[in-house]
Amino acid sequence: MPRLALYALAVCVLAVVAAVVSFAQGSWPLGIVWVLLVGVSSNMAWYYVRRGKAEQAERSESAPAA
């Protein structure tokens, strides 16, 4: 898994925890902001995973056959 995907996944997990804490403390507006950040970071993680797989497939296709 590409490094940027791991970073985005870590941000996603931390944002989920922050959203749960915010909602539990009764801070709804801040919790909604954290949920939005979860959405953005999860999309970034998927993007970097797919991009890494595409680059790996491209490299294996361009490699000379032995």
From TrEMBL:
It comes from the Bacteria. The chain crosses the membrane at residues 28-49. Keywords: Membrane, Transmembrane, Transmembrane helix. The keyword Membrane applies. This is Secreted protein. It comes from Streptomyces macrolidinus.
